[in-house]
């Protein structure tokens, strides 16, 4: 039987051509470019709501808006509006502009402003600070000062159990936790209540919180709206040291990141890939109860980007930039040490040699060519 | 050498005259530590953990000073504010322990710049007293937190303020700024 291979689609993203399978979104195509060449990572549109492991997520936050300069090879007209790249599928001959288009960057700046309108600026208190996607997003794309003067929305505090802390004020309504709850439970209860600026994550989360995988809403949350109650105010992420570890868990894959402070495990999270997404969800037992080093098999330090604040005050070899320039220079300027020389231990000979060497040095220093 | 130089004694007399002249001049040295010099408005002395106007601690243990510190001199432990402590701490989180290792500290002032809550400052008027024992070197909150009865005052709390004040003074404008306790 003849195997039918899907025809690859060729698109141009910021001037770079990439071939992807049909049905791929623009975001995935951009990520494909960055995965092939790490230096192109800046091209990838930021994502606040889109989360690859959660199907049907995306299209809500508008952080990933891009301009499609040509819809396809057949119909090369540009799309009239900016499109969300995380839910727009590619077509043959599509030309996409992201960082090369000023309108896109300008819009993104406004999106940051919109997301921050109701976000309390309590980063000094928030446990997510340092690994917060909204922090990264506003640092990379936003403006330094806020123009917002009105009162920010507040909510009554809801206690959703002993493990997860909900701060509704910090929520940006990305729906990621709702999709997570949708995956781990069968019954749909409720997702987001109310509308507009009054909308809030509700009952759904509360009902799903007894589930064994409910702790994953913490990892999935791009901001500090859902945080680990067992880790609350214990440390800052940059004071703790991430270490990859695994254990034999009958419920989940058991592959986690342990966050150490000294010899103490203060937090357990799932491992995240370069896009900040969890590939394998972990169970609540692993996350909240196994907080001893003896529970785990350590694999080694987690790779942290040098640009991340988590790498601060850690002196791992690969985090310290060592220019090979100095070594190269030394190789051209100095002879290697001759270790084949005779090694004298006889005191009289050493003294005699040193007197001789001194004499030679004195003689050299008095030479006319050294005294100009 | 000339005859004058060879005569030796006149040169001695000139030298002695210079020495004698200095007996009647004002001394340039001072009797430290009884007398102290003014160090200037931008001197970076010892740390202080500020309180706000209502006497609540400003520090929320965000850890930015510690991560900014090039000498890794600062360490802290955060705690959650309990009910009834609203008058003590400004935010829902506060530093239960805040320690500066004064042997490590290089008084660069980066902690002051990193602080988002205007909580930590390096005093311009006081510095670390001489210590003779290692356990005097780690300063905890008992020494660092501001005393409300004897508040730390200064003329300018931000760079911009200090710069505009400097400009005014350079232009010879009358500036009688009363040092104030809070930024």
Automatic annotation (TrEMBL), chain A:
| Database matches in Pfam families | Fer2_4, Fer4_Nqo3, NADH-G_4Fe-4S_3
Mind telling me which GO cellular component terms the entry cites?
membrane
Gene3D superfamilies for this protein: 3.10.20.740, 3.30.70.20
As cofactor, the record names: [2Fe-2S] cluster; [4Fe-4S] cluster
**Could you tell me which InterPro entries the record lists for this protein?**
2Fe-2S_ferredoxin-like_sf (IPR036010), 2Fe-2S_ferredoxin-type (IPR001041), NADH_UbQ_OxRdtase_ferredoxin (IPR054351), NADH_UbQ_OxRdtase_Gsu_4Fe4S-bd (IPR019574), Prok_molybdopt-oxidoreductase (IPR050123)
Give start and end of each 2Fe-2S ferredoxin-type domain: 7-102
- Protein name per the record: NADH dehydrogenase subunit G
Automatic annotation (TrEMBL), chain B:
Q: Which domain of life is it from?
A: Bacteria
Residues given in the record as [4Fe-4S] cluster 1 binding sites: 59, 62, 65, 115
| Example of a GO biological process term | aerobic respiration
What reactions does this protein catalyze? Answer: a quinone + NADH + 5 H(+)(in) = a quinol + NAD(+) + 4 H(+)(out)
Source species, please? Answer: Dyadobacter koreensis
The function of this protein is:
NDH-1 shuttles electrons from NADH, via FMN and iron-sulfur (Fe-S) centers, to quinones in the respiratory chain. The immediate electron acceptor for the enzyme in this species is believed to be ubiquinone. Couples the redox reaction to proton translocation (for every two electrons transferred, four hydrogen ions are translocated across the cytoplasmic membrane), and thus conserves the redox energy in a proton gradient.
The record's section on InterPro entries has: 4Fe4S_Fe-S-bd (IPR017896), 4Fe4S_Fe_S_CS (IPR017900), NADH_quinone_OxRdtase_chainI (IPR010226)
- The protein's predominant localisation is membrane
Give me the segments passing through the membrane. none
Instruction: Tell me the compartments it is located in.
Output: Cell membrane
Q: Which cofactor does it need?
A: [4Fe-4S] cluster
* Subunit structure and binding partners: NDH-1 is composed of 14 different subunits. Subunits NuoA, H, J, K, L, M, N constitute the membrane sector of the complex.
Pfam families (alphabetical):
Fer4_7
Which gene specifies this protein's sequence?
A: nuoI
Q: What is the lineage of its organism?
A: Bacteria, Pseudomonadati, Bacteroidota, Cytophagia, Cytophagales
Q: Which family does it belong to?
A: Belongs to the complex I 23 kDa subunit family.
List, alphabetically, the GO terms of the cellular component aspect.
plasma membrane
EC assignment: 7.1.1.-
Name of the protein this chain belongs to = NADH-quinone oxidoreductase subunit I
Keyword line: 4Fe-4S, Cell membrane, Iron, Iron-sulfur, Membrane, Metal-binding, NAD, Quinone, Repeat, Translocase, Ubiquinone
If you read the UniProt record, what top EC class would you report for this enzyme, in one word?
Answer: translocase
Cofactor binding mode and count: Binds 2 [4Fe-4S] clusters per subunit.
- Asked if Metal-binding is a keyword of the record, the answer is yes
Keyword Ribonucleoprotein included in the entry's annotation: no
A GO term for molecular function: 4 iron, 4 sulfur cluster binding
Residues that bind [4Fe-4S] cluster 2, according to the entry?
A: 69, 105, 108, 111
Ranges for domain 4Fe-4S ferredoxin-type come to 50-79, 96-125
How is it placed in the membrane, per its record? Peripheral membrane protein
